[in-house]
Specification:
It is a single chain. This protein has a seven-stranded mixed beta sheet, sandwiched between helices. The chain has three domains: 3-105; 111-192; 198-335, Endonuclease Chain A (Endonuclease, Chain A, 2-Layer Sandwich), CATH 3.30.870.10. Helix 5 runs parallel beside helix 9. It is built from 14 helices and seven strands. Helices cover 52% and strands 11% of the residues. The chain is an alpha/beta fold.
Length: 337
C-alpha cells in the first residue's frame, strides 16, 4: 500500500470518528477568548483540508470532483452538518473502491505505461529457470504450459500469456511481483504516486490542440505567454470561466497585447509584465492545467503564431505541472511587488 493511500485511509478513519463521537458545535467557538481555539473543531477542519489535498493527488476524477464541491466556508452548525454529510458520501465511494477493486481503481495509467509494465513483467519472469518457469507462471494464475515450451523461449512463453491482459489484470500481476525486480518496483511506485510522465509533441493544428486541452480543464488554467491575441482560445477560456474554472494569465505589457482590444482581458485575472521589469524579456509560453498537465513550447497564443512553424509539448505529470505552477506564482508575485 502506498503512503498516499495509507494517509487517505487514516484520515478517512479519523474524520469518521469526529463525525460519530465529537460534538463539532460551531457555536462553542465563541465560548473561548479571542486568543484561544476550539480544539475539536479546528482539528476536524485541519484534517478535512489534509484529506482534500490527499484526494487531489489521486488519479481518480470522481473523487477529485466530489472533494472540489465541498463547502469549507463554515459559518454555523448547519454548514458543519452539511460538510459531514458530504464527507460520508465520499467515504462511501472510497470504501466501494477499496473493497470492490482492492485499491486498484485509485490507480490509472495510459497505454504506454501498460506496455512498459508488460515488458518489465516479461523481463522479470524470464530471469527464472526454464525448468520452473511454467510452475511459477501457473502459480501466478497464467495459462498452463510445459517446461519444453519455456525452453524454446522464456520471453515468448511469458509474453503470449499476458499480452492480451487488460489494465486491471496487468496491474494485479505487477503488484504480485513487487520486490522481485527493481525496475518494475520503480515503475509501480511512479504510477501509484501519479508521477509517471506522459509526453506528446505537436507540430500541426496547435491552436486546436490547445483548445481541446483547455476544454478538459476542471479546476484551474494558469497561462504565461509573451503574447496573447488569439480570440478563439480566449472564447474557450471564457466558457471555462463560466463553468467555475480558475483562470489566471501573465503577458507582456506592450502594444501587441494592448492592441488586442479593450475587452480582451476584462473577463480574466490578467497580470502584465513591463518589458523593463526584468533584464531579459518574459518569453515564457506555458499553460498549467489542473496542476497535473502542462502545455509549453515555441507557440505564442497569438494570431500570427498560427502561420509560423511552431511546436508544443503536452506533459501529463503532477511533479512537472507543480514546477511550472511554482514558476507562475513566482512571476505573479514579482509583478505585484
Amino acid at each position: 500500500m502506498t503512503p498516499l493511500i495509507s494517509r487517505i485511509k487514516k484520515l478517512r478513519k479519523e474524520l469518521a470518528v469526529y463525525s460519530r463521537e465529537e460534538e463539532l458545535n460551531y457555536n462553542h467557538i465563541y465560548d473561548y477568548d479571542g486568543d484561544q481555539e476550539a480544539p475539536s473543531y479546528n482539528q476536524f477542519y485541519t484534517n478535512v483540508k489534509r484529506f482534500i489535498t490527499a484526494i487531489n493527488r489521486l488519479n481518480n476524477s470522481e473523487l477529485v470532483k466530489m472533494v472540489s464541491n465541498l463547502n469549507l466556508d463554515i459559518e454555523g452548525n448547519e454548514d458543519i452538518y452539511e460538510l459531514e454529510s458530504d464527507l460520508v458520501c465520499i467515504f462511501d465511494v472510497i470504501d466501494d473502491i477499496l473493497y470492490e477493486q482492492n485499491e486498484q481503481l485509485l490507480v490509472t495509467f495510459d497505454a504506454k505505461s501498460k506496455n512498459q509494465l508488460i515488458n518489465l513483467i516479461v523481463e522479470c519472469l524470464s530471469s527464472e529457470s526454464a525448468n520452473y518457469l511454467h510452475v511459477i507462471c501457473n502459480g501466478l494464475g497464467l495459462e498452463k504450459g510445459t517446461s519444453e515450451e519455456a525452453f524454446k523461449s522464456k520471453r515468448s512463453y511469458v509474453y503470449s500469456r499476458i499480452s492480451f491482459f487488460n489494465e486491471k489484470q496487468i496491474w494485479d500481476l505487477s503488484k504480485s511481483l513487487e520486490g522481485k525486480c527493481d525496475e518494475l518496483d520503480k515503475l509501480i511506485l511512479s504510477i501509484e504516486n501519479g508521477d509517471h510522465l506522459k509526453l506528446e509533441a505537436k507540430f500541426e493544428n496547435i491552436q486546436q490542440r490547445i483548445i481541446e486541452e483547455i476544454d478538459k480543464a476542471e479546476f484551474l488554467i494558469w497561462i504565461a505567454v509573451a503574447w496573447f491575441t488569439d480570440k478563439k482560445i480566449a472564447r474557450t477560456l471564457y466558457k471555462k470561466k463560466k463553468q467555475g474554472v480558475d483562470i489566471k494569465i501573465i503577458v507582456i505589457d506592450d502594444k501587441i497585447n494592448n492592441n488586442a482590444g479593450k475587452d480582451f482581458y476584462q473577463y480574466f485575472e490578467v497580470h502584465k509584465i513591463s518589458p523593463n521589469k526584468y533584464e531579459n524579456i518574459m518569453h515564457n509560453k506555458f499553460c498549467v492545467i489542473d496542476l497535473k498537465k502542462v502545455i509549453h513550447g515555441s507557440y505564442n497564443w497569438s494570431i500570427k503564431a498560427q502561420y509560423n512553424k511552431e511546436t508544443i509539448s503536452i506533459i501529463e505529470n503532477k511533479t512537472q505541472a507543480e514546477n511550472f505552477a511554482r514558476e507562475f506564482i513566482k512571476m505573479k508575485l514579482n509583478i505585484n511587488h
